[in-house]
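Annex B.
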Amino acid sequence: MNSIWNQRENNFDFLRLALAVLVIYSHSFPLGLSSDAQEPIFRWTNGQMTGGSIAVDLFFIMSGFLITASAERSGSVFSFLKKRVLRIYPAFVVASLLSAVVVVPMAAAHFAYNSPIARVGDFLLQTLRLVEFHYNSAFLTNPYPGAINGSTWSVSFEFWCYIGVALLLVSTLLRRRILLLAAFLTSVLVSVLFQLKGWIFGGKLLGLILGSPQLWARLLPLYLAGVVFYLFRDRIRLSHTLAIVSGLALVAACWTPIGWTALFPFAGTYLVFYLAFTPWLRLHRFGRFGDFSYGTYLYAFPITQLLMKHFAHPIAPWLLFVCATPLTLIAAATSWYGVERHFLQPARRKETIAHAIDS
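Acyltransferase 3: predicted structure tokens.
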């Protein structure tokens, strides 16, 4: 299929890293001031979203597109899942171990017998489930005590989405794009109803295995938006006018109750892929030295928490951001060169990351 959306010279690497850095900036407000109230995007959207929330949402949209492309090219479901496991788990395991053996001793008031290292069984189970661990004695003087890596909550949700794509692949439902379009539209409606009705439900066991239904109501429409965009890419054109209309729709959504929930899966999706594939940005070589976005996402929160432990409270968010970002990027580059790239397929290692769509 000859389409602008298929070109391998895209801007995904730049967008992913920019969004990961946006998470650092957004988290600098609650971590530095104990509240999102002064965060610019929180104020601009009248409390509907933060910069970090938008970044996570866009990660899920892009992932839906890229992972569906990867699934179509995979020789088998096993091959597809193997790539996904090797992309997610090694860096996550290393980051979790470093949090347990380095961050916790530096952050804890006392290193007790019930530390993450001592509770090996719980630690291994949480790591296997891609879930953040808490340590109550850590960061006691910080605005968010006990939180070691609050950003990683979304990783398990994304991995469940990978499993969902694998099920669509093995059942051949991935070829039935009208059915998936209907599923996407239904999920948006359910998400809006969750907001309107304030629904809260889900048993402890269900939440333990799959995660919060409330979070799924937010994230699933976004992931499906990326899936559907990929499947209908032959029917969607790259248009400056549509990009402007999408941007204006999101501006209007800021002053509309639940407007962001209703419009972002459509307007946000078009905008992010417009930016990813528009030729005027020409950032396709941005990732030639590596893909540092995942490492940035994994290490930003513990690094920011450690900085907060040594700063006087409260601290100006911009100062916290300026201090945390370079340290995080160094950790991310170390994660890429020391861990992540070694688990990619040999042929994939020889490509520049900017030319690869299934990282």
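The CA atoms of residues 78 and 254 lie 43 Å apart. The chain has 14 helices and no strands. Further annotation is deferred to the next reporting cycle.
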